[in-house]
Write a structure and sequence with these properties.
The complex is a heterodimer of chains A (about 190) and B (about 100). Chain A is α+β, with helices and mostly antiparallel strands and about 190 residues long. Chain A is built from five helices and five strands, in the order H-H-H-E-E-H-E-E-H-E. Chain A has helices spanning about 5-25, 40-60, 65-85, 100-115, 150-165; strands at about 90-95, 100, 120-130, 135-140, 170-180. In chain A, a hairpin with a 5-residue loop joins strand 3 (about 120-130) and strand 4. In chain A, helix 4 (about 100-115) packs across helix 5. With about 100 residues, chain B is α+β, with helices and mostly antiparallel strands. Helix content of chain B is about 25%, strand content about 35%. Chain B has helices at about 5-15, 65-75, and strands spanning about 20-25, 35, 40-45, 45, 50-60, 85-95. The N and C termini of chain B lie far apart (about 45 Å). In chain B, about 35% of the residues are buried. The chains are: A alpha+beta (about 190), B alpha+beta (about 100). The interface of A and B includes residues 107 and 167 of A. Strand 2 (about 100) of chain A pairs parallel with strand 6 of chain B.
Chain lengths: ~190, ~100
């Protein structure tokens, strides 16, 4: 479910729960609430809304309320924009009519990282692009004091070679090297 | 249009399985990839009115790049597809069990 739908459903359900709770409390006259008092309680609510609307019409709103309303409007605009944005595909498009699941790309990138000297472990995330190609984020663990620039360049080359061999077009490769303790990395100690 | 879609799926499936580099037919990752007709179904090939969707598990190590394998599959199923556009989805890689 998209974020916009989720927010709408959450608000709707919260409203329904509140309405249901009020109905039960007033119907069974719990906690001293009586059905005959409901109209006065609703009057309080409606007069509050009327007061707010008349303040809006007169332009008498406090700065904080204006800021909150502006933020709500902005949030609504962002959510609407996100809703209109087409969904990211689940599979990586390669070329005309050929798709590959993200896990295959992930495995290829991980094996390329494991083959790279001085890389102790890695974590890969792969996202499919709307155009052909995959967006790859690779976090590699290296020992402290290693030449990060050289490792990064080697790693980039190996990933590109691996993916080229399988025929997966690489849209974007984001590499991050993290200095880690070899005893705590998951893969191996060289 | 729906007449014989199961036969098309079966014929395409057989052609795909005979392709070098294909380990097996896939079952679908997010939803079942199958062709249904009556009470029967064929998994791995989805026959649509204008599209033939083929789900495969490729043999690892890959004998050729995936796009080349997909093209080979397209050529193989060309006679069975009845002019439909062929989509190839590689769902997984499976280590070849030769010599076991």
């Amino acid at each position: 479910m998209r974020v916009f739908n989720r927010i709408v459903v959450i608000l709707l359900l919260v409203g329904l729960i509140a309405l249901g709770a009020y109905t039960v409390v007033y119907s069974f006259e719990l906690f001293g609430y009586q059905l005959s008092n409901l109209s006065s309680a609703l009057n309080g609510f409606t007069s509050g809304v009327e007061g707010f609307v008349s303040d809006v019409e007169d332009g008498n709103l406090p700065a904080l309320t204006i800021a909150i309303l502006a933020a709500v409007a902005l949030l609504g605009l962002i959510l609407l924009f996100m809703e209109f944005k087409p969904r990211r595909p689940r599979r990586v498009r390669m070329q005309r009519g050929t798709y590959v699941v993200r896990d295959i790309v992930k495995d290829e990138v991980s094996s390329a990282a494991e083959e790279t000297p001085n890389v102790l472990g890695s974590t890969t995330t792969v996202a499919a692009k709307r155009r052909p190609g995959a967006k790859v984020k690779l976090r590699a663990d290296v020992r402290r004091g290693q030449d990060k620039k050289a490792i990064k360049s080697d790693l980039r080359e190996r990933v590109q070679q691996h993916l080229a061999r399988t025929g997966v077009p690489l849209g974007r490769l984001k590499l991050k090297l993290v200095e880690s303790d070899p005893r705590q990395t998951k893969t191996r100690v060289q | 249009m729906t007449n014989g879609i199961l036969q098309i799926a079966r014929a395409a499936g057989e052609a795909v399985l005979a392709t070098e580099g294909v380990h097996s037919l896939g079952t679908g990752r997010y939803a079942e990839a199958a062709t249904y007709e009556g009470t029967e179904k064929f998994t791995g090939v989805v026959v649509k009115p204008d599209e033939l969707e083929i789900h495969i598990v490729a043999t690892y190590p890959l004998m050729r790049p995936i796009p080349d394998l997909a093209q080979l599959i397209r050529d193989r199923v060309a006679t069975e597809s009845g002019g439909r556009r062929t989509l190839v989805v590689v769902e997984d890689l499976e280590v070849a069990d030769e010599g076991l």
